[in-house]
């Protein structure tokens, strides 16, 4: 093995730095990873590789020490590794397991676009879903996740039931399970979305916003029927998106406090008492093509959570 101590000492003497860097020399020449690297690569390294690579060796040892002491490093989340580069010593940085896990979690989170949704939605997990009164809904959700294949049409779910029974949470569990398979989901809270689209009229960005979401692999309309009735939103926003997704056979989900029958009645109400049944029928035909109605029963999950925290 190359005598790292003598070679590095000679280099430091030449630079008149030995007195200042005595501790550095000791640290580097006695580092087991440095010695193992030189031993393993002695046939690949140039004769002056240690002197030319002394700064790299010091950087390697110093960064390792910072990581061990939980100090701020040159490349947070990355671990230094010595390599041979053109017969000289070089250093590269590889992600630590914690960094890799954090990156994977961030990538998964990016697959679920859930603006304006509560935290329990983003943390939802099908394994934690209480099946009491919700057996069919959970079974349908698990079947969808297991069977869904991008590029092939799978009918989504129209989840209906009283406030707080777990409709939105179940949709979150589906979205997060699909994210594990690298499948993107966009969730729209319909009352909020309707306001945003109305505001988009002022900057002429309605179509741009529609095009941005209409072709995502999985699209969720949460709390449809909870918005203030607007024939414009029904026909020129919701109708356009649903028509596109029906034509392209894209999986679409809904949640609502209204059954499909009651949603149709809601959609049929026009301005000034006008009967918009024909337009409502067109909307509902698209919804029924895209999703299967499933009623969810059971106790109010929100009240159960509050009770456990009191």
List its traits.
52% helix, alpha/beta, 310 residues, Rossmann fold, six-stranded parallel sheet
* Structural class based on helices, strands and sheet pairing: alpha/beta
Strand order of the largest sheet: 3-5-6-7-4-8
Major beta-sheet overview: 6 strands, parallel
**Estimated helix fraction:** 40-55%
CATH architectural designation of the largest domain: 3-Layer(aba) Sandwich
Q: In angstroms, what separates the terminal alpha carbons?
A: 67 Å
Basic shape: elongated
Mean pLDDT: 83
Give the low-pLDDT segments: 305-310
Using only CA atoms, what is the Rg?
30 Å
Strand-residue fraction? 5-15%
What is the topology?
Elements: H1 4-14, H2 22-29, H3 32-41, H4 49-52, H5 54-68, E1 78-85, E2 88-95, H6 97-110, E3 112-113, H7 119-122, H8 135-147, E4 156-160, H9 167-179, E5 185-189, H10 190-200, H11 206-213, E6 218-222, H12 231-248, E7 251-256, H13 260-268, H14 277-290, E8 291-295, H15 301-309
Describe the structure.
The structure is a single chain. The chain has about 300 residues and is α/β, with parallel strands linked by helices. It folds into 2 domains: about 5-95, no CATH class; about 110-310, 3-Layer(aba) Sandwich (Rossmann fold). The chain is about 50% helix and about 15% strand. The protein has 15 helices and 8 strands. The strands form 2 sheets. A 6-stranded parallel β-sheet has the order 3-5-6-7-4-8. Strands 1-2 form a two-stranded antiparallel sheet. Strand 6, helix 12 and strand 7 form a beta-alpha-beta unit. Helix 1 (about 5-15) runs antiparallel to helix 2 (about 20-30), helix 8 (about 135-145) packs parallel to helix 9 and helix 12 runs parallel beside helix 14 (about 275-290). The longest helix has 18 residues, at about 230-250. The radius of gyration is 30 Å and the shape is elongated. The chain starts with a helix and ends with a helix.
């Amino acid at each position: 093995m190359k005598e790292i101590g003598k070679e590095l000492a000679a280099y430091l003497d030449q630079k008149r730095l030995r007195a200042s860097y005595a501790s550095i020399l000791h640290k580097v020449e006695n580092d087991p990873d440095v010695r193992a690297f030189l031993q393993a690569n002695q046939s690949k390294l140039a004769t002056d590789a240690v002197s030319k690579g002394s700064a790299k060796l010091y950087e390697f040892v110093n960064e390792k020490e910072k990581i061990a002491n939980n100090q701020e490093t040159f490349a947070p989340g990355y671990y230094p590794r010595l390599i041979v580069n053109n017969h000289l010593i070089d250093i590269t940085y590889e992600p630590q397991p914690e960094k890799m896990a954090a990156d994977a979690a961030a990538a998964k989170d990016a697959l679920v676009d859930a603006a304006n949704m509560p935290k329990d939605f983003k943390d939802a997990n099908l394994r934690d879903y209480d099946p009491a009164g919700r057996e069919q809904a959970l079974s349908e959700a698990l079947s969808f996740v297991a069977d869904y294949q991008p590029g092939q049409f799978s009918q989504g779910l129209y989840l209906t039931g009283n406030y707080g029974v777990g409709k939105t949470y179940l949709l979150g569990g589906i979205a997060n399970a699909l994210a594990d398979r690298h499948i993107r989901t966009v969730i729209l809270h319909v009352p909020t979305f309707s306001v945003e689209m109305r505001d988009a009229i002022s900057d002429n960005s309605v179509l741009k916003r529609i095009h941005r979401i209409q072709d995502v692999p999985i699209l969720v309309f949460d709390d449809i029927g909870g918005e203030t009735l607007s024939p414009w939103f029904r026909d020129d926003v919701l109708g356009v998106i649903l028509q596109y997704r029906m034509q392209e056979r894209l999986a679409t989900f809904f949640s609502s406090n209204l059954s499909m029958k009651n949603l149709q009645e809601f959609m049929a109400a026009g301005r000034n008492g006008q009967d918009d049944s024909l337009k409502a029928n067109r909307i509902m035909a698209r919804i029924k093509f895209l999703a299967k109605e499933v009623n969810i029963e059971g106790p109010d999950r929100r009240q159960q959570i509050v009770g456990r925290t009191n």
